[in-house]
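Review box. Two proteins, two foldings.
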Amino acid sequence: MSDSTAKSRRVQVHISPDDSLPEVLARLRNHAGKPVQLEVPDHSPILLTAAEFRALKDAAARSQIDLTLKTTDSLRVQLATMFDLIEGYAISRRGKQVSNGAGDLLPAGSGWRTGTDHESIRDDDDPISISRRRRSTMEENRRREPAPKRQRRRAEPEEEQGSLDYLDKPEKGTSVAKLVGRVVAILLVIGLVAGVAGWYYMPEVAVTATLKEQPVSGDLIYAVGLPGATLPSDVQFTIEASRVSATVNIQASVPTTGVRTVPGDTASGSVLLRNPSDAAITIPAGTQLENVRGVAFATTDDVEVPAAGGDGPGESQVDIVAVEAGNSGNIEAGALTGKFADFDVYFSNREAATSGGTETEIHSVTDADVQALEQTLTDQLRKITADGWARQLASGESLVAQSVVPGTPDYQIQQSVGDEVDELTLTGTVEASGLVFTQSEVEQQLRQAFEQQFAGEVASGYQLLPETIDLGESQVLSEAPDAVRYKVAATGNTRAVYDQAAQDHLVEQLSGSGYGDAEALLASQSAFASYDISISPGFWPERMPQTPDRITFEILQADTTAATPTPGVSPEAEAGS
């Protein structure tokens, strides 16, 4: 393929006068993997330093761009040659334009030469030092010109040369001003370079994400039995048990039903007295009054009830207290009404109830309670025996309650008829046999079985989290003398897979992108449930660093630790009598 054909296939990217270097680098990334020719006008304010050309070349390398530079500015040509962004350039010493092999011409009389003729440019060169060397080179070229030409210059009018003498012999004040100006210019350039470097390399970005999770659930059937026991085909696994005999301590109890009431506090209140007669009546303290049910009260003070007048019966108020303690003296408002037996005066508690009366019920043992306790022992002997046996087992052992076969119990009732207690109890012993197994084996095999079962239900792109498997309570399905079948349910979690290679690729994509593009990229990750971007320092504009090493990525994981089994809980916990 000819050079002209290759050139024609290059993507042409033109820099406008207002473009900044970050904008140019962002435009280049849109042509990743393609040959690109970057056209730089002379009046562009960028690509004038070695640091800028280094950033340009690094960006092209990361995006796999075959980049060349098109420019007529000799300083940019020199810098581009140093970074291998222009090939085949040569500039005539006599100022003629020479082709670079791709049809692009260089400016005549630039005084710059490529190849072995040009001065090497170091990475830390700034535009001022480059300009000084450029002027030095131009002076050297003038000294090398033919003698006649130099003579013609000396023959120029003396008046014109004299008018420029002040440039060769500056006054002391002017020299100091120029020196200060140069220092200020150098500081400005250093500040500009530092600003550009800070813009690219100062910000740090931390990206965090949580991965999506999906639940899984299921159930299975297992058995606990003697070796060789016949079991249905739906049993997932069998825990081997041993038949053991033991003397078991038993106990049982029932509530007592005998009740005796003991009065406590006494009720009190007040009543309104009304006198319809034409003479005042005095009611002495201790005068009794009662309601229709015969609950008696007595007045606490002497009280005079005035005679009736034109506006109705005379009225007075008096406090009362129940004659007997207990709840019977608590009478609702309006329920205590009537007329004194010895006085023509009526009473009523229509304004408030009487209250404060209390009593206590004391329970005691009856013959019926003894019979009920013995019947409970007979009806629930296997469960009572299994409960007592479970309390005697060594640590780590469990008992199949349904397999327990108790003998005849030997017991004593601890209370007698008439004893004032709330509960009647018996204690004793019984000889029994049953299946004993190791509970830890059940939990271990259940977790292994559910892990295998759930592995087949995991959605594509997800993985099972074994530590999240949570076992439910075992439920008895059937029982036989030599084995018992149980059913148990379990739940667990699966989490989206996002391996290290995917994380590294994401960070590479995020570097150099705009903040909005970075958010769009993170939102497009199907494995993410949520994400967050944090920029440091906080005052920095929202933008992503140009290099991946300034971006950290971390996956936040929720607490998915498995539930801790309750100590002492075993399959027989759900057993009936």
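Next protein.
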Amino acid sequence: MTTCIESMDFLILGRATFTGLDSCDLLVVASFSQNRAVERIALSKTKFDQIADATRNVRAFIESGSPSLKIGDFEDLGRSMYDLIFQGKIRELFSGATAASTFPLLPCEVTCEDSTLAGWPWEFLFNSSQPQFLCEEKHPISRNVLTLDRRVLPSNVQDKIRVLFALGVKQDDARITPREERQALEDVFQNFLADGSFELKFIELGAFDQIERQLDDNPCDILHFFGHAGYDTRKDEGYLQIDRSGKPLSLGAKLLGQMLHGRDISLVFLNACKTAVGSQTVGVARSSLAGGLHARGIPTVVGTQFSMPDNGAHFFSATFYNMLSTGKSVIESIHRARRAMNFSPDVNFFDWGIPVLYSSNPNGAVFAKPIAPRSEFDVEYESMSETAGLVSKLSMRSSNAPSPISIVTTALDSSREKAAVRVGLIDLDAKAGFLPALVEQANKAQNYYFFRVVYLPIPSGYTREIDGYTQTYVPSLASYLMKKREELAEDYLCCLTKNMIAGEEYWSFFASAQETGGAVSTVSTFDVRRYAEAAGTTFAKACLCLFLAMLLMGDDRWGLMPHERTYGCFFDLLMNRDDIVVGLKKMKFDHLACRHRIHDAKQLRSIDSLLALPNS
């Protein structure tokens, strides 16, 4: 359920005008709980120009790579903004609020009267005394605009959540992979929401009035736009773009705001570049797509203040919706989504600061509560992500495009600490929905092994194409998974992939742990469903046998190695892959030459108990 999080609000009043003057006055009003601090701050023209120049350099660097900047340059910009606003009583209140807050997060909401200040990249506020970027740590940033047209998120959402996905590019556009974005949304909502609890509509735009016509007939709670956008300096206005053959069509911020005004939409997600860019002379409410929609009464708008990397955009949007659909607040969701961008294979050090959140109630929830039913092993998403430092599982559909899958995982259990061997099961891309139920059965049947399902963001580029077959190339994952095994404090990680396994000196294997010394193994489900059916057992039990084989082979006490002859044993080399059916039919570890090499009676009893699990 959603926690009521405290936040700290910063209202920056005054205009940054220097006609004939060396400085101007700003009034900063900070509020936290029942406390308020007010400081009148002198903004010198020198300081203003310094921050404005640094902001332009950051924008130019992100957009074009020139001038070349390093993280220290971003810290300097963030420090300048922080030191300007966090003065005197403001800093005292902020320090006191940070110390007093009992929540993991203390969001900061920033509202600027001046249009130029409103366009500063506040997400990069940097506290040099820590040192840290506020937004990356305890203080996620949200923005607000001064407007009388204000609506907050509804406290009670109807049973059905209505989502409209508006695609502004062709579905086969290879530059920004719209199919991956669509698949990501489908995966998120279909995995998290109960049957019939959501409605997801997709429209491929040929004209912008399609949005208006669609909303007339089918109102929505969430509008998600994916495509291109930009900022027209002649009109001082941001715009969305429909990319069609011939001349692209553009829709400015003002007209978009008029189309969506009064529609009772809770969230607009603008997954396109520069949708939060505004004018330095015209207010954010009139010039920025995101700010303009927020000023028109949309309670929550997500946009971007610079160009958004494609892979990072997928990671960001998927994690954001993952969090929202478990009932988490908007600010918690955006905070976790920023972190998820770091798992993109082509991540830049500044990517997390590109998204911008405009919200009149960042601590509110779009989904009032988790709608999907929870079983014993289907715990809240954030349990694992907070305790183990993980984000949502992001498996790869191809070598460069992530497909985020919503997660359920096992809760940490006191019996884990008592187990002789702790095993994390990772689904790389097999989409094995049986894992939580299998883990529950396995942990109840014995106590030598303790299994838990772990969902990791998986780096891209781990597959390769050989003779028309996709293989999971283990060396590309080995060092990453070994590091994660240590972070998770697991004795073993067993990974599941839909592809055959390949390595430096082998290919088309069912399983391998060659690159990790046995601590991390990878198991293929390729054709395993068919073999399980031929053997009269279940797919889950067949995968369990392969897991056990890799666990025993990785146990360096026994020195077990594969043998070429097929006995229906864990260690059959399976030169003829169809021979796996022999062992799956027996479902017993009775090859004495191998069994007698294991001198741990409790381990053997546990293996026998696992193999005796019912085929359910």
